[in-house]
């Protein structure tokens, strides 16, 4: 396959990850690996989405949710390297992770690389050598609320449905809002556009299941306490949903009861996903020896 040439300004039509020049030019970043610099650029890109969705903590600081598994997929690397790259960024104070426990993904604060540097060294200008300088000037994303006008998306409790913030909302609406944010539905729709119907079906299924007043729920042929199922579902994140979608796409057997299939897959996703990634990592390590 022979690739075509770029003509005129055609090269400016595509989206790119932006890696600040300062990471290559400044003395304090000289020991940062190339992969870590690329990862920082990817995390910066995600920051704009979080800012638009109003993902801010109580102090107004924007955060993202970007798991080790997402780093693996973005950089096509094994788990141990993904962890190493995140730690590399943490050690130089470009990233700070706030661990929340209970199986929930950490909040990632991408810190300002330009702190302490002269503005002339980090800002774009009209005299830049880059041909795309005029369109490359960084614009601060305008804070805007998400569809429900909630600006603080951090859920500090396992069951957030009775907070003052949610007062006046129905239980189903609160659940739908919770899962829309904890599962990063907007991001999932961007990453998996062909699975839009299934993603919405999963959200509706999670809402229905967690909103039920039944004491027992049937999962994979077993009756389990509804509170246990609810607690497990509320710890799911976008990675778990992508894993379920992947398993669904790879399944070659006919599915007689899609609802029960999805319930079982979602319930078991945290365990099966971890085992799957560990098996893949071991396989990659064995091949590299």
Automatic annotation (TrEMBL):
DUF6017 domain mapped to chain residues: 165-286
All copies of domain Replication initiator A N-terminal, residue ranges: 15-89
Full protein name: DUF6017 domain-containing protein
Species of the source: Faecalibacterium faecis
């Amino acid at each position: 396959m022979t690739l075509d040439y770029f003509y005129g300004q055609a090269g400016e039509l595509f989206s790119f990850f932006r890696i600040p020049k300062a990471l290559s030019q400044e003395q304090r970043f000289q020991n940062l690996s190339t992969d870590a610099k690329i990862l920082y650029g990817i995390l910066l890109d995600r920051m704009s989405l979080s800012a638009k969705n109003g993902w801010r903590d109580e102090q107004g600081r924007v955060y993202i949710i970007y798991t080790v598994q997402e780093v693996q997929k973005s950089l096509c690397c094994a788990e141990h390297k993904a962890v190493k790259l995140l730690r590399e960024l943490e050690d130089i104070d470009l990233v700070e992770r706030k661990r929340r426990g209970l199986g929930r993904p950490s909040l990632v604060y991408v810190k300002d690389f330009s702190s302490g540097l002269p503005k002339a060294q980090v800002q774009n200008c009209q005299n830049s050598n880059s041909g795309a300088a005029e369109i490359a000037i960084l614009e601060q994303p305008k804070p805007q609320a998400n569809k429900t006008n909630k600006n603080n998306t951090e859920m500090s409790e396992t069951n957030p449905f009775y907070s003052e913030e949610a007062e006046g909302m129905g239980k189903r609406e609160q659940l739908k809002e919770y899962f829309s944010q904890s599962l990063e539905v907007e991001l999932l729709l961007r990453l998996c556009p062909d699975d839009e119907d299934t993603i919405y079906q999963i959200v509706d299924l999670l809402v229905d299941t967690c909103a039920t007043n039944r004491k027992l729920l049937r999962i994979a042929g077993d009756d389990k306490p509804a509170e246990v199922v609810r607690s497990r579902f509320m710890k799911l994140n976008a990675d778990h949903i992508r894993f379920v979608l992947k398993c669904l796409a790879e399944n070659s057997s006919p599915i007689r009861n899609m609802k029960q299939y999805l319930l079982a897959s979602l319930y078991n996703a945290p365990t099966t996903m971890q085992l799957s990634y560990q098996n893949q990592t071991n396989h990659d390590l064995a091949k590299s020896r």
